[in-house]
């Protein structure tokens, strides 16, 4: 949308105003996330910029809140629990979701729309309703307050993302490739690993990342299903924020932003690979 | 499918949790007792006064703290209803314990059989403060402490020091924000006391619609200046940050802010409201016999007195009072900081369990509606 | 050769008619496809759909009176509540016996009834608690007289309203929780009435949740549309760079974004500090940006904005730029061309984004809880509160109303956009 060489002044003015507005909106999107990074290096117990910080005086900065984080057992346990739960939940979501997506994208799949609606529903139902329902059920079967209970409930919440991303990668997939493979004498497992898997892999991985982050970020369901023994990072944050927001929370938030950036980069690389594989123009 | 699946993940979870060492205990001769309490300084005081000495004396017992006490009643109900109780002992305020007892969620207690007598031989039923073993006619509750909800104020931010709870309602005398609990309990009582209702007529007046209207009218006068708290730690923080000049909270939280963190805060004990906090034993727990042994130890005279070394709440036994000594770290005498100390308890209210059991649901509703509008 | 009769239908090599064979193959393929989906379907059904359905039945489940006072419920059937007279001595005798049976040591259940009825009529809790002790000491009748004369609380046994309530809630299924969730109740005469104005809250909270969600959704359209358009029309290299600014918030933890807003909006927060420092505000007149609906509104708009931008962007990217050029070359101004040609083509994207953002918004819990104060909390927060306070029937009824509303929106989404067209990023 470059500005053509000869335009009326009014249009030129509008063009720059529009760009300016867009700049403001993008600032609104990104600034809150960036602002916590410098604040987490605050030397004082402030949640705003101190005079020393504004004048870039080194005395205004410190890593004490990161040390605070590192020395607090509850945060360290939180890190372990978060990764442990999210990895397992993502593995379950990804396995079940990918297999289901393979079925869903076959043209002869019966009741496709209805089943799709059911499988996507965990993404749509208000979390508080899901949390209560799953909590009562997990208590009944003896899985409340256990890692297993939390993992399966998070796996439920993660599957819609896997189903959506994998069916999307399969949408342009030529089903006759499978038949061709089979006709040429390949076993079904060989067809899966040699033909299907390379094509859907980017979708599977991005679905897995979605499932991972869904669990990693989840705090409503786990508040009901888990206890403090299985407390994750977002739970420690939530409990902390309810009482008072401390700079330690900002230090943790900064670390989490770092994780998000890593995930984002992975996703972007995958997307490019996927588009290349499917013969689309590189972006 | 489901069964296979859950089994599979359970195994996998166990395997990885084992390597991460993330809290899954291997099967062994050790008995693990899961004790649910409030976390923070309170759990620390129980760890110091009860758990640590008990575990030192009983090698086969491991006590695990679960800080889920807020909201424990609902979760305990779910566990008992599902016949799958994973908690061994739960710390509750008396009003929740009464409900738990009513609903058959917790074991009934026979004080003289289940609890230790005082050193001089006084049976437990006589040694705990009168009426505290069976609040509201229930008999499932073993009190540990008497705590109070009372006020703290910033000494450097008020022009005149408040002397009466009614100063909280006086925006001229004490201008600025004040913190109150986001519940009708206590606030309604204080509002009426300060609208001229005598203490002994309080619940009579509160039982009429006009009385409640009057209380809300009084609260209306300060509504715009109130910051509402839901967690006891909020008020000390709000006071330290200067966000409020005066606020209610549990007396132990204020003690910590004043004496341990040396904040410019002072206590206003006027019409503090006494309440009890203690143990209940979930029905259908897996280690009930072990828990009862632990309880006999943890609620004896010395142990209750010991808890005051860590936190400024009053032990619930007559015989523990004289044994309250100095704070474990600060070395200051804890007796003047007990809410039950005669100097602090000149004017006080006792939480009226019966009245609130009847009216809590409807008043909560009205209070929430009042807040939301 | 001569013997072969010409086949009426085509057959396969093994002699079965081709049509049947094809059908069988199709059936087989259908079954294969279904078998692939089955594991996840069972997983979701067992762990999600069934549990939610079971939980929602709690909103009408009413076992207390029926199971603890079964004979009283039967005895009350013959009592005519319209006469305004108390039930007979026989009914009093029955309930007294059931009080004794229901308060045996170790099996004390009678107070559950009191607690249940207390939701409908304050005072029932203490009536049951106190009466239990007194009735256990009554060895003989007349029970009616003795119960009415129990100190302080006994007068409630002499009140017909108590007995009407008992009779009504004797039914194992109740509408009381749903009535309560809609700020209504059955009054002492048995008529459905609105609750007193001072006690009305849930309707108000539902309305607030919907209105604020509409406001937030509208805001995301307003802010999301220009950005999506910019991304869709910029050269790819620049767009990819700007896309990061949209995707990073999308991938950042909800708690991180909420705490960022707490830092920004607080009384001593960055925005207030900045305004005071710049001289726009006095130190005493700092703006209240948090713990009210402003906080919820701003933070949720920020959090949900990517959910609007991404579907809009994916639709806009498919619109060929030649359409706009054609309109311009025929003399339309930039604005006119946009409104008349471009905008209508983006409507599916707006629809998808709007429904998605709205559905997510009305179920929000964490952000309103942390930044909403009193005026910015949603219905989800109230549902969690009701669970904690033990009134699970009401929590389920409120949850059911929210749930049904979301399902309706979900159906609309399916109708307009199609669930299978849902995309992420």
Task: Describe this protein's structure.
The complex is a heterotrimer of chains A (about 280), B (about 375) and C (about 425). The mean pLDDT of chain A is about 90. Chain A has 12 helices and no strands. Chain A has helices at about 10-40, 50-55, 65-70, 75-105, 110-125, 125-140, 145-170, 175-185, 190-215, 220-225, 235-245, 245-275. Chain A is mainly α and about 280 residues long. The relative contact order of chain A is 0.12. Chain A has a domain at about 80-230: MetI-like (MetI-like fold, Orthogonal Bundle). The radius of gyration of chain A is 24 Å and the shape is globular. In chain A, about 75% of the residues lie in helices and about 0% in strands. Chain B is of the alpha/beta class and about 375 residues long. The two termini of chain C are about 65 Å apart. In chain C, helix 10 runs parallel beside helix 14, helix 14 runs antiparallel to helix 17 and helix 19 runs antiparallel to helix 20. Chains in contact: A-B, A-C, B-C. Chains A and C meet through helix 1, helix 4, helix 5, helix 6 and helix 7 of A and helix 1, helix 10, helix 11, helix 12 and helix 14 of C.
């Amino acid at each position: 949308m470059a500005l053509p060489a000869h335009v009326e002044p009014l249009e030129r003015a509008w063009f720059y105003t529009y760009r300016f507005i867009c700049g403001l909106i993008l600032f609104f999107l990104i600034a809150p996330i960036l602002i916590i990074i410098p604040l987490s290096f605050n030397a004082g117990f402030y949640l705003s910029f101190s005079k020393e910080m504004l004048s870039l005086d080194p005395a205004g900065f410190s890593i004490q809140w990161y040390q605070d984080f590192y020395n607090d057992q509850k945060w360290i346990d939180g890190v372990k629990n978060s990764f442990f739960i999210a990895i397992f939940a993502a593995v379950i979501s990804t396995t079940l979701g990918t297999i289901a997506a393979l079925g869903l994208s076959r043209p002869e799949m019966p009741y496709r729309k209805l089943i799709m609606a059911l499988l996507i529903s965990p993404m749509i139902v208000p979390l508080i309703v899901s949390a209560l329902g799953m909590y009562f059920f997990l208590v009944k079967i003896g899985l409340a307050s256990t890692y297993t209970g939390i993992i399966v409930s998070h796996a439920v919440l993660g599957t819609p993302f896997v189903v959506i991303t994998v069916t999307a990668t399969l949408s342009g997939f030529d089903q006759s490739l499978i038949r061709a493979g089979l006709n040429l004498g390949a076993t079904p497992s060989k067809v899966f690993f040699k033909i299907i898997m390379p094509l859907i892999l980017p979708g599977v991985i991005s679905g897995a990342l979605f499932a991972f982050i869904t669990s990693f970020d989840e705090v409503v369901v786990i508040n009901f299903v888990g206890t403090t023994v299985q407390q994750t990072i977002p739970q420690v944050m939530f409990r902390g924020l309810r009482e008072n927001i401390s700079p330690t929370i900002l230090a943790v938030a900064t670390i989490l932003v770092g994780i998000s950036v890593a995930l984002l980069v992975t996703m972007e690389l995958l997307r490019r690979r996927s588009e290349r594989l499917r013969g689309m123009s590189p972006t | 499918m489901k069964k296979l699946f859950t089994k599979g993940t359970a195994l996998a979870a166990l395997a990885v949790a084992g390597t991460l060492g993330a809290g899954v205990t291997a099967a062994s001769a050790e008995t693990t007792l899961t004790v649910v309490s409030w976390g923070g300084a309170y759990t620390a005081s129980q760890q110091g006064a009860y758990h640590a000495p008990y575990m030192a004396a009983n090698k086969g017992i491991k006590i695990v703290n679960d800080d889920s006490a807020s909201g424990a009643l609902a979760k305990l109900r779910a566990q008992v209803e599902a016949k799958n109780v994973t908690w061994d002992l739960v710390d509750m305020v008396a009003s929740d314990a009464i409900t738990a007892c009513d609903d058959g969620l917790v074991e009934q207690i026979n004080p003289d059989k289940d609890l230790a007598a005082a050193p001089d031989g006084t049976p437990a039923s006589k040694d705990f403060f009168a009426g505290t073993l069976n609040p509201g006619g229930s008999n499932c509750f073993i009190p540990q402490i008497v705590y109070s909800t009372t006020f703290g104020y910033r000494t450097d931010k008020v022009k005149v020091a408040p002397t009466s709870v009614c100063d909280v309602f006086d925006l001229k005398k004490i201008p600025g924000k004040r913190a109150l609990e986001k519940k009708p309990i206590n606030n309604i009582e204080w509002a009426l006391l300060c609208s001229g209702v005598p203490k002994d007529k309080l619940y009579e007046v509160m039982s009429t619609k006009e009385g409640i209207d009057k209380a809300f009218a009084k609260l209306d006068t300060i509504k715009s200046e109130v910051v509402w708290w839901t967690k006891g730690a909020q008020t000390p923080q709000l006071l330290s940050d200067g966000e409020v000049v005066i606020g209610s909270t549990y007396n132990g939280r204020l003690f910590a802010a004043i004496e341990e963190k040396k904040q410019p805060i002072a206590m206003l004990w006027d019409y503090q409201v006494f309440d009890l906090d203690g143990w209940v034993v979930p029905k259908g727990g897996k280690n009930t016999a072990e828990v009862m042994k632990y309880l006999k130890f943890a609620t004896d005279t010395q142990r209750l007195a010991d808890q005051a070394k860590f936190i400024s709440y009053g032990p619930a036994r007559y015989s523990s009072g004289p044994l309250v000594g100095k704070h474990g770290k600060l070395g200051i005498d804890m007796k003047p900081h007990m809410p039950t100390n005669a100097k602090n308890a000149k004017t006080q209210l006792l939480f009226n369990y019966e009245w609130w059991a009847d009216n809590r649901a409807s008043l909560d509703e009205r209070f929430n509606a009042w807040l939301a509008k | 050769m001569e013997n072969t009769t010409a086949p009426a239908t085509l057959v396969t090599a093994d002699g079965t008619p081709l049509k049947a064979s094809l059908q069988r193959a199709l059936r087989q393929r259908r079954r294969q496809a279904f078998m692939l989906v089955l594991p996840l379907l069972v997983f979701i059904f067992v762990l999600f759909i069934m549990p939610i359905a079971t939980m929602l039945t709690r909103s009408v489940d009413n076992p207390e009176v029926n199971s603890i006072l079964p004979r009283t419920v039967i005895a009350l059937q013959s009592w005519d509540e319209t006469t305004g007279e108390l039930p007979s001595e026989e009914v009093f005798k029955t309930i007294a016996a059931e009080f004794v049976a229901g308060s045996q040591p170790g099996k004390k259940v009678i107070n559950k009834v009191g607690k249940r009825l207390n939701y409908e009529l304050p005072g029932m809790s203490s009536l049951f608690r106190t009466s239990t002790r007194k009735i256990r000491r009554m060895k003989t009748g007349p029970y009616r007289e003795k119960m009415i004369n129990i100190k302080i609380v006994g007068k409630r046994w002499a009140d017909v309203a108590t007995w009407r309530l008992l009779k009504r809630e004797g039914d194992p299924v109740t509408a009381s929780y749903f009535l309560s969730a809609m700020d209504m109740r059955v009054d002492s005469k048995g008529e459905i009435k609105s609750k007193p104005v001072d006690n009305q809250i849930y309707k108000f909270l539902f309305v607030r949740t919907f209105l604020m969600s509409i406001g937030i959704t509208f805001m995301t359209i307003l802010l999301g549309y220009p950005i999506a358009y910019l991304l869709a029309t910029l050269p790819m290299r620049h767009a990819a760079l700007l896309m990061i600014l949209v995707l990073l918030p999308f991938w950042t933890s909800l708690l991180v974004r909420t705490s960022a807003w707490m830092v920004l909006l607080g009384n001593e927060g960055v925005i207030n500090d900045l305004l005071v420092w710049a001289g726009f505000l006095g130190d005493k007149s700092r703006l209240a940006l948090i713990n009210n609906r402003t906080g919820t509104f701003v933070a949720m708009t920020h959090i949900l904005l990517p959910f609007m931008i991404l579907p809009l962007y994916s639709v806009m990217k498919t619109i060929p730029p030649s359409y706009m050029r054609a309109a311009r070359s025929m003399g339309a101004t930039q604005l006119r061309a946009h409104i008349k040609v471009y905008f209508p083509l983006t409507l599916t994207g707006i629809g998808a984004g709007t429904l998605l953002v709205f559905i997510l918004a009305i179920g929000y819990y964490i952000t309103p809880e942390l930044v909403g104060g009193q005026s910015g909390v949603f219905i989800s927060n109230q549902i969690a509160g009701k669970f904690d306070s033990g009134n699970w029937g009401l929590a389920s009824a409120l949850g059911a109303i929210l749930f049904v509303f979301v399902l309706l929106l979900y159906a609309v989404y399916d109708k307009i956009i199609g669930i299978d067209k849902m995309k992420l990023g």
